[in-house]
Amino acid sequence: GVKHLQELKEATKNGYECYILFAITMPSVVKVYPNRNTHPEFADEFESAVNNGVKAIYLPCEVMPDSVVAK
Asked: How far apart are CA 1 and CA 40, in angstroms?
């Protein structure tokens, strides 16, 4: 994940519009945050990427046995 965030951040600096998408499968959750306790490097890089123009999308989804549907 850290390498991908670094690549997205670099692409943004080069003029590309970049996104990271979080598919949220729990109905009561509306936003997610990196778990700094378990992966501080990812948390730092995520914050840096967003601060440098990478856009975070939080997409609620319904998971069924044969499909995933965005809401």
From this structure: 12
